Amino acid sequence: MIYSMQCRSIVKGYGEGYAIATAQPINLLSIDTNGIVSDSMHMLNGKSIAGRVLIFPNAIGSSVGAYRLYAAMMNGRAPSAVVCSKADIITASACAISNIPLVECHGYDRLMRLCSNRDVIATVNATNASITLRVSQD
Amino acid sequence: MQLSREEEDALDGKYGEALATAYRILLAIGNAMDADRLVPVKWAHISGVNYNTIGDAGLAFLEEMSRDALASNVKARVTSTLNPMGYDPVKGYHDDRFVERQERIRKAYEAMGIIGSYTCIPYEVFPIPSRGEHVSFAESNAAIYANSMLGLVTNKESALSALASALTGKAPYSGLRAEEARSAHTVIDVKHEVNDELDAALLGYFAGRVNEQCISFRFSSGLEGSTPIGTDGRARINAKALCSALGTSGSAGMFLVTDSAASDDDAKHRIEYTARDASMVKDELSDEDEGDAIVYGSPQLGLNELWMLANMLEGKRFRKRCLLFCARHVYEEARRIGYISVIEHAGAEVYADCCSCLTPLISRDEVDSVITNSVKAAYYLKNWNRVSVCLKSMKEIVRDECL
């Protein structure tokens, strides 16, 4: 099945990859240079965001978090695009210097439902403000 | 977002790459936060100084920015100050590679005309602008303190947005910069007594979870004493602890203290904070009853805390290693007054220009568990340094860990 969703463009660009989605805000400082989430209190702990479309509500905690996403990018381990429910200063500045497309999606609950417990390939076009999801049949 | 002709030119690179990058950051943030324009700020406080947190990628970014700034003759346009670095340059550190990189970060910033303050409590070191002035503070405890205690106006900036504000003297008009955002939708009814800095921090950590820009606290009238949060004496120590914990667990950039008698009908949402909530937060962060070393700081201790600690420590001695972090300026002042010698006589190591969060000075190779009164330190020690934590108040630590 293919689903399309409207979104708001924050940092322009185009990215595609398997979606990795969480309803829990992320402290970006917990992302290591290999693009792995390393926060024992987070549901994505131990998971890689490299090459994925990272879907999370917003960043929390450290103001330095932006540099972690930048470091992952320099190391070739950045997400291919980022989708937030409420884009914030940390995430926006991180994506701006790392050239990672960033959009804000208002149908976030629906997005979460579609992405939970199955493989979803997400395409984010931050230039014409759209998200496309290809959901495998299960 | 509407940019002036000059701002557009800067974004297009007419004034060099450093300013173009700065405007690109401001534009992305402005887009994210629905800003319609940029407004002038009086002061930028920049985080992202510690090599341990920004790493080689951060260093490369800053050196490039600094080179570009130099090439196009761009310097900080407003008072710009820096967060702590990773070590105390006067005491030194055994890892030459770390020191070499840390020093390069310091040079990159200072070459852009940014003051090497290395403090996370700039509000206790530098003169405070008039109420209502816009600033751009990245360090979360400082941003929350500025908004909530000093009447200054800032968002909880990122390391990069504060740097962009330093070079441009501007920030997007959005979030907490708009008056209508500076009121709370959620009131936390504080039914559990806040007696010390640890109580205040546990409350702050709890409140951050609400995940709103501005939160209101209403201290129950049944509780003894005056409002435990303020700008004087102990209330200020509590306020600092609350700000740092609030900044750690959530995205709030401001809090209000509502008079217990005042009506708060505007608030849409009400949450009770009870003894049970306090102990749940504490249990989440504090997983030990004991510890190998003691850590005071995060935020760095001010003169208030050093005075309080020196008074408690007179004639006592720590039974274990104790590390204490403060601002250089505060350290010098406290040394002249005599607090530092009392604290050092008690066996504590006093570090300046750095802080407990993400410092390489506390490593799992040397300690398994740390005792601290800082909820922010607890969070980062646990998650970053991977050591266990025992949370106690400053007073409890002196009571239990001194001879």
Summarize the structure in words.
The complex is a heterodimer of chains A (138) and B (403). Chain A is α/β, with parallel strands linked by helices and 138 residues long. Chain A has a single domain, classed as Phosphohistidine domain (Glucose Oxidase, domain 1, 3-Layer(bba) Sandwich), CATH 3.50.30. Chain A is 20% helix and 29% strand. In chain A, helix 1 links the parallel strand 4 (53-56) and strand 5 (81-84). In chain A, helix 1 (65-74) runs parallel beside helix 2 (89-98). Chain B has three domains: 5-177, Aconitase, domain 3, CATH 3.30.499.10; 183-283, no CATH class; 286-401, Aconitase, domain 3 (2-Layer Sandwich), CATH 3.30.499.10. In chain B, the strands form four sheets. In chain B, strands 12-11-10-13-14 form a five-stranded parallel β-sheet, sandwiched between helices. A four-stranded parallel β-sheet of chain B has the order 8-7-6-9. Chain B has 14 helices and 14 strands. The longest helix of chain B has 21 residues, at 51-71. The radius of gyration of chain B is 21 Å and the shape is globular. Chain B has helices at 5-11, 17-32, 51-71, 96-111, 140-149, 159-168, 197-208, 233-249, 275-285, 303-313, 328-337, 339-345, 375-383, 394-401; strands at residues 38-40, 43-46, 79-82, 136-137, 170-172, 186-190, 214-219, 254-258, 269-273, 293-301, 321-326, 348-352, 369-372, 388-391. The chains are: A alpha/beta (138), B alpha/beta (403).
CATH architecture of chain A: 3-Layer(bba) Sandwich
Distance between the termini of chain A: 11 Å
> Can you tell me the residue ranges of chain A where pLDDT is under 50 for at least 5 consecutive residues?
none
Q: Can you list the strand order of the major beta sheet of chain B?
A: 12-11-10-13-14
User: What is the C-level CATH assignment of the largest domain in chain B?
Assistant: Alpha Beta
Mean pLDDT of chain B: 94
What is the number of helices of chain B? 14
What number of structural domains do the residues of chain B give?
3
**What is the number of strand segments of chain A?**
8
Strand-residue proportion of chain B: 15-25%
* CATH hierarchy, class of chain A: Alpha Beta
Question: Helical amount among residues of chain B, as a percent range?
Answer: 40-55%
- What's the overall average pLDDT of chain A, rounded? 93
